[in-house]
Write a structure and sequence with these properties.
The protein has 442 residues and is α+β, with helices and mostly antiparallel strands. It is 29% helix and 28% strand. The strands form three sheets. Strands 1, 2, 3, 4, 5, 6, 9 and 15 form an eight-stranded mixed sheet that branches. Strands 8-10-11-12-13-7-14 form a seven-stranded mixed sheet. Strands 18-17-16-19 form a four-stranded mixed sheet.
Length: 442
């Protein structure tokens, strides 16, 4: 089947005149462009099987996608989804840059960077206050204003090592046909600082379709699915990967952990992200011993900590307004730069009124925080900053990390070029909620 598909793709290929490339940016035409989009995903190894390309149809039919074309044919696509992201105790409108894909022909033409910047501008104009993405590596998306998110723990464990005394009830079997019910259970999860929710039925179905030998186990109250696990399976003894986890309280989470433990009779290894509400290492029996025994084995046991996502502010006033600080109010002038402005201005075909959040602001962090723009744009013409207040200077990349408490002001002054009087940095250190955890992969 795979050979036939590649042969068909080859027949549709066309030579490109390297001396006369017609570059075009536009929105996706689903009916006309999907063959080209699937060719891109096949080239980069994201969707090489028919089932994976069927999942693409489910997602691209409803999500917002823009494309970069060479001589009329899409060679890069950037797909965006809507969601929410919590800052402190406030859910903010979120733009998720969910998929950036460039063909072999489209490399080196600036497509990925320019189209991502365009999606940010479109999202800001629709009311998104923050954007986030899962990064393939650190550095590329910094050029459009993204800063690295918080650390997340990922485990590979012997499920038998889960130290939970609770005995799980017999679960119900779930398939991709239950994706809507699973999505509702995930939406009902507790929302901590940094929590992300992408309430997108098509995306939920596609994720199930993309799971290798995917299956689910869950619990119903009447007809309502209350809590569940969705896993991808590999081999008789694993390793399995926990792809989705839905619950609404601690007791349900404990039952799901006990359910995973019950699989240990046959499954030797499960990979999973740490649930935001717990420290998973403390709930494992002798984790260091398990890691030493299983080191470099097929059914390995390990714990990794890394930041897999990035985020950036799209609306300074909305994001600052979400901060609630019970201590003495901290006021300052904010001099903010935004690299996305240069990207948008250099891409001739992108004509958007939003060009980033660079400018001068007067900010107060308090029980009810606020930020007022006094001068906008990279040139920052004279504005009415408060001469009595100290000034904090940074990029939007750094300011986004500060607001979400990824790192403290004093730390960002060392690592990210944040500039301000030491007294201001010290005053800002306790202001922002720390340890943001999305709890949702994107």
């Amino acid at each position: 089947m795979k050979e036939k598909k590649q042969s068909a793709t080859k027949k549709k290929s066309a030579h490109v005149d390297s001396d006369s490339l017609a570059i075009e940016y536009r929105e996706l035409n689903f009916a006309k462009d999907m063959d080209a989009i699937k060719r891109i995903w096949d080239e980069i190894g994201w969707a090489t099987e028919e089932s994976e390309q069927q999942a693409m149809d489910v997602v691209f039919a409803v999500d917002d996608t823009v494309v970069g074309c060479v001589n009329g044919s899409p060679e890069c696509s950037v797909l965006a989804q809507e969601g929410i992201m919590r800052l402190d105790q406030v859910d903010l409108p979120l733009c998720v840059i969910a998929a950036v894909t460039t063909s072999r022909i489209g490399r080196g033409l600036g497509f990925a960077q320019n189209l991502t910047a365009w999606q940010l501008a479109r999202a800001a104009q629709k009311g998104a206050a923050v954007a986030a993405l899962g990064m393939f590596d650190q550095g590329f998306y910094n050029k459009v204003g993204f800063g690295t998110g918080g650390y997340i723990n990922e485990f590979a464990i012997d499920p038998g090592s889960i130290d939970v005394a609770k005995k799980p009830r017999a679960p119900s079997r779930l398939t991709k046909d239950d994706s809507a019910a699973m999505l509702k259970a995930m939406v009902n999860r507790p929302r901590n600082h940094g929590a992300v929710v992408i309430d997108n039925p098509n995306s939920a179905l596609a994720e199930c379709m993309l799971s290798e030998n995917g299956f689910g186990l869950g619990y119903f109250s009447g007809k309502k699915l209350t809590h569940f696990v969705w896993l991808s399976a590999k081999g008789e003894h694993g390793p399995y990967k926990l792809e989705r986890l839905g619950y609404s309280d601690g007791e349900q989470l404990l039952e799901l952990l006990a359910l995973l433990k019950s699989l240990a009779d046959q499954i030797y290894s499960i990979q999973m992200m740490e649930p935001p509400e717990i420290q998973l290492q403390s709930m494992l029996k002798r984790p260091f011993r398990e890691q030493a025994i299983a080191e470099k084995g097929k059914y390995y046991s390990e714990q990794n900590t890394y930041a897999w996502y990035q985020l950036r502010v799209l609306d300074v006033a909305a994001c600052v307004g979400a901060v609630s600080y019970a201590g003495p109010p901290v006021g300052f002038n904010l001099s903010l730069t935004d690299p996305v402005a240069q990207v948008l201005s250099s891409a001739e075909q992108i004509n958007e009124s939003w060009t980033g959040v660079a400018g001068d602001y007067v900010v107060e962090c308090a029980d009810t925080s606020k930020a007022s723009l006094v001068a906008s744009g990279p040139s920052k013409a004279k504005g009415q900053i408060n001469p009595a207040l100290p000034t904090l200077s940074c990029s939007v990349n750094t300011f986004s990390r500060l607001l979400w408490g990824v790192a403290s002001a004093s730390s960002l002054a060392i690592s990210d070029g944040l500039q301000g009087p030491q007294s201001l940095l010290a005053a800002l250190d306790p202001v922002f909620e720390t340890n943001p955890k999305p709890g949702w992969e994107f």
